[in-house]
Amino acid sequence: MSFFKKIFSSEKKETLDKGLEKSNASFFNKLSKAVAGKSKVDDDVLDNLEEVLVTSDVGVNTTLKVIERIEERVAKDKYLGTDELNKILREEIAGLLSETNSGEETDYTIPVDKKPYVLMVVGVNGVGKTTTIGKLAYQFKKKGLKVVLGAADTFRAAAIDQLQVWADRVDVPMVRQDMGSDPASVAFDALQSGVKQDADVIIIDTAGRLHNKVNLMNELTKVKRVMQKVVGDAPHDVLLVLDGSTGQNAFEQAKQFTAATEVTSLAVTKLDGTAKGGVVIGISDQFQIPVKYIGVGEGIEDLQVFNKYEFVDSFFK
């Protein structure tokens, strides 16, 4: 397919290649064993490939879709060599991702007709939620946008303090209240403050608890309802942050949060520290929610806008 001939942004692509090194090495080590001694893609190779994809955290349902697509190509082409398998995998998985991730996003953009653009961030504690918010604020500010943060995760003092550290580091204003305050009240204040300051982007942090789905649903619904008193169609994006290194646990979190609130986009973090990068493919496909950002390193620049072609190219390098 011609899209693999695209010339990617070299610096970003190098970071992505490095961030997915462990996933890439693990996958190709397994794939090499799966096709060892075989010259043709037959039932044995497909069975082995299925196991490779499942153990790479692509997920069972997505794996079966990929295998089915490859089976169709084998039936059509009659003789398909194992040396072509890598290329075919790239094409089929890029095709799968295309069904959810429509564009070839390369930059941090917000709709021009939404001001302020309100982004509500959800996810359990420890997935890199606060860091993702800080890095997003940095990227938006770098583009010349005025950013305001709202610390509506009021159940942990540490959450408020961590967000304050990022607000200070990026030099953007943050609206906060004391620990134990009503999260909806903080969100309301943050939106009022953002509107007053003529902010372009307002990012609202929310509590990362999943022990009671009903409470979580009620809380997030209330936060949304209260925000809409200030900005009628807020939030414009509900971003779920998932830790890619947790593999199948990330699937479970996605399942819980999508049941509790209307998630509109995903950020998958910590991909540089794991061999489980396949989780990005599975989650995007299974939940039909676009992956917007991926975290491939500790640095402030290492949160990247997700581009499916770059990702597939790096994963199957």
Describe the structure.
- The protein has 317 residues and is of the alpha/beta class.
- It is 50% helix and 12% strand.
- It has twelve helices and eight strands.
- The chain has helices at 10-19, 21-35, 43-55, 60-77, 85-98, 129-142, 157-170, 183-196, 213-227, 248-260, 279-287, 308-315, and strands at 117-122, 147-151, 174-175, 201-205, 237-243, 265-269, 291-295, 303-305.
- The longest helix has 18 residues, at 60-77.
Keyword list:
alpha/beta, 317 residues
Calculate the terminal CA-CA distance, rounded to whole Å: 15 Å
Q: What helical percentage do the residues reach?
A: 40-55%
Sheet having the most strands:
8 strands, mixed
The assigned structural class equals: alpha/beta
- Compressed to H and E, one letter per element, the order equals HHHHHEHEHEHEHEHEHEEH
Strand order of the largest sheet: 3-2-4-1-5-6-7-8
Total count of helical runs of at least 4 residues: 12
> In what range is the share of β-strand residues?
5-15%
Average pLDDT, rounded to a whole number, is 90
The gyration radius over C-alpha positions equals 21 Å
Instruction: Kindly state the number of beta strands.
Output: 8
Globally, the shape reads: elongated
Uncertain segments of ≥5 residues (pLDDT<50)? Answer: 1-5
